[in-house]
Design goal:
This protein has 159 residues and is an all-alpha fold. It has five helices and no strands. Helix 3 runs antiparallel to helix 4.
Amino acid sequence: MALRVGLTKLRLLVACLLIGLAMAGCQAQFVADYDEIFDRAVTDTQKKTDAFLQKLAEPRSPLRVFARAKDSYDDILNDIHSLKIRAEANNSGGLNAETLIQIEKTAATIRELRALHANDARDVTDRLVVLTQQTVDVQFSSMLKFENLKRRGEAKKKQ
């Protein structure tokens, strides 16, 4: 009886060791892989958004009239939507969830400014444009930093 219990414990120990060794060779992945195309697209969209908001911030800018700014809003939101589609395509297992959250926050910020502007151009104050600029700068920066972390992680994998 004691021999049988000893053999059972020994088998359990060997099984645990084998499982541990097998798992040591596996790498867990918690975020999506780096996407160079997405990285470039974020930079391009950020530049376009920045240029638009800088022009909108000028007190006598023709873009203060919503009808003249509408196409710029639409273009920026279209680019952000393209970022979302690209990130969703790289979201196997939910590994790109944080990136998708940042994209949605950025789109929401632009949509809010657009809605205020469409409602009444007087709502688009210099201060509001500056605050929007600061907000989207943080949002785009977060996306780019996260992609850079992914790239560094891939470089470490190759070493």
